[in-house]
Amino acid sequence: LGEFEKIADIYRLARQIPSSRAVRLGIGDDCCLLTVPEGEELALSTDTVVEEIHFRLSYFDHYQVGAKAMLAALSDLAAMAASPVGALATVSIKEEKNIDELARGLIDAGAKYGCPLIGGDLTSSTGPLVVTVTVAGLVKSGSAVLRSTARPGDRIWVTGAPGDAAAVLACLEEEMKSEKRGLTLPDESLKKKFYEPVPRLAEARALIVSGPPTAMIDISDGLAADLGHILESSGAGARLFAESFPLSSFSSQVAIALGFRAEHFFLHGGEDYELLFTVPPGVIEKEVSRLEKETSTTFTLIGEINEDSGKITIMRPDGSIEPITGSGFDHFTH
Amino acid sequence: LGEFEKIADIYRLARQIPSSRAVRLGIGDDCCLLTVPEGEELALSTDTVVEEIHFRLSYFDHYQVGAKAMLAALSDLAAMAASPVGALATVSIKEEKNIDELARGLIDAGAKYGCPLIGGDLTSSTGPLVVTVTVAGLVKSGSAVLRSTARPGDRIWVTGAPGDAAAVLACLEEEMKSEKRGLTLPDESLKKKFYEPVPRLAEARALIVSGPPTAMIDISDGLAADLGHILESSGAGARLFAESFPLSSFSSQVAIALGFRAEHFFLHGGEDYELLFTVPPGVIEKEVSRLEKETSTTFTLIGEINEDSGKITIMRPDGSIEPITGSGFDHFTH
Predict the structure, then answer these.
(1) How far does the CA of residue B80 sit from the closest CA of chain A (Å)?
(2) Dihedral in degrees, nearest 10, Cα atoms B125, B126, B130, B134
(3) Which of these, A51, A69, B189, B278, has the minimum number of CB atoms within 10 Å of its CB?
(4) Is A99 in contact with A122 (CB distance < 8 Å)?
(5) What's the pLDDT tens digit per position in B144-190?
(6) What pLDDT score was predicted for residue B138?
(7) What is the reported pTM?
(8) Is pLDDT above 70 for B280?
(9) For residue A175, what pLDDT is reported?
(10) Looking at chain A, which residue has its C-alpha nearest residue B77?
(11) How many helices (H) and strands (E) does chain B have?
């Protein structure tokens, strides 16, 4: 089979997924065409994953690579409170034999969140597998939640318990090096948080109904680094309260076993795709139990925005205060 | 400088370009936001170029790679008769030192066609440079020209003189092998057709005013292969008239010097990004001189659509007829 036959196969796969209402023309032409209803805006985001940088094929099969690439891109729509309408994917790959599996991963993951594959490009490569997913979503005009609009006094909230994904990754990397250092290997439900993170689309939608956040971001680089992005865009600072951190026992155990503080993966682990958002005091507090029930996700108040521009400090249970740096994964200085 | 500083540099560069009317929020947040005016639709397309497959850094500098990646993506908007509003670019690159140059190439090429950079992703890589550009464009609802709507009896037209880009590439590759076989090296204006192809946006816009094409595609894989895509989507066949082919003397000379027929690069050379389109007889004929004057591009009638499903035949000047196959560059069988 050549490129054009492979592409025809992918078209067939993609067309089995129900289209979304905004898709006027799906995959297979020079462009896809989207209709944007009056009163709505279109949100677009693009995300690339590269073999050996973002994943290794020793602990990811091609289906999982496709699925995770799609889920990571969808998470950017959640961060704006937009609803997915479709995705375009490009794949640069050495051998054609894994294309079908990769495409199925992409298509299945998109289908789960109402996001059919509506375009793409398939090329060969002499090097690592590279997958880029561009997602399109709709949001009521003016309702998208930006990074740049956090204000001093706002409370900082987080969904779920960030850190597990990075702790799973650390275990997989240690396992590869055969230096387990007493680590408990994660069970299937923990592994799933790393391989199949849930884009917090439903949580974002619920939030904009019950008192919209002033600013929001998805945690891909690590909570501290992503909070740093909000602070930089908003020209603000933040104080976090260590005793309120929703630390999972798994991520704490792995952190400690590897010689870090318990909160290490919570603050600096990427790829959980939980939402970090800010709201004026009192807005979400009375809605939390309803939000948690509706979404089956926890919402935790972990700090507040202040005027200490660009800086993040942590208040410890004993009242002491220390600065943290917003270091996430940096592609060119690590 | 690390990733986040590099990205801040790119934001600054991108924000110097005037935004287009449809961009409500540009680069720098989780998503960009587009407003689509009532009565218009949004066209989206994505295109990837990979080092060693689509280009070599021995005869492309990073600025040229960025520029060509943008121009190739814009050409897909031309093929639908859509007008650019913005582009998202992802770059996977080994060394950070070339990022600025690549970004400038992308941004400058987009700016020329009213297409600011409105999003992207920058990652390191252990392998070849990979650049993906996703373009968004607007088109009046129902006016986009598809591949699937050519009808028997329609005439087949082409803009410009396809073949030069592939002939330049052939010269560059021969030069690399130091086996020039008597080839004349292309001059600067010919080289420009390869390095900086012009997306036929103005030509497409002029065409939909003066009698819209029934089907259209941009020539990226080669005229025969791309005509093949129209035929496959439309369930039709085509006959081409060899004596009407607008062969450039350069592409003919290179083809003959390399042991091919004069028409080789015209029919099978990719990357010219000229438009191939079909129209009912009589619609464009009387408009040609006005179209050519308005766009400074030639329009040539080269054949007609018939019912010979999926087949392309060529009628020679002596009246003989021979089949051609729609073979373009295939990423997995070459």
Answers:
(1) 7
(2) -30
(3) B189
(4) yes
(5) 999 999 999 999 999 999 999 999 999 988 877 765 556 767 899 99
(6) 98
(7) 0.95
(8) yes
(9) 78
(10) A31
(11) 10, 13
CB A113 within 8 Å of CB A19: no
Contact B123 A35 (CB under 8 A): no
The number of C-beta contacts closer than 8 angstroms across A and B is: 236
Which residues of chain A have a pLDDT value below 50?
334
Do A44 and B34 make contact, defined as CB atoms within 8 angstroms?
A: yes
Place of tokens 């790119």: B10
What is the distance in angstroms between the Cα of B281 and the nearest Cα belonging to chain A? Answer: 24
pLDDT level of residue B81 (50, 70, 90 thresholds): very high
* pLDDT at position A186: 87
Report the alpha-carbon distance of residue B81 to residue A24 in Å, rounded.
16
Q: Which of A23, A134, A226, A334 to mutate to test the interface with B (most CBs of B within 10 A)?
A: A134
CA–CA min distance B184, chain A (Å):
31
- Cβ contact B35–A141 (<8 Å): yes
HEC letters along A64-93: HHHHHHHHHHHHHHHHHCCEEEEEEEEEEE
Neighbours of A258 (CB within 10 A): 16
Nearest CA to CA, how far is A96 from chain B (Å)? 7
Does the distance separating the beta carbons of B44 and A118 come in below 8 Å?
A: yes
Please report residues of A whose CB lies closer than 8 A to that of B39.
none
Q: What angle do CA B61, B63, B69 make, to 5 degrees?
A: 100
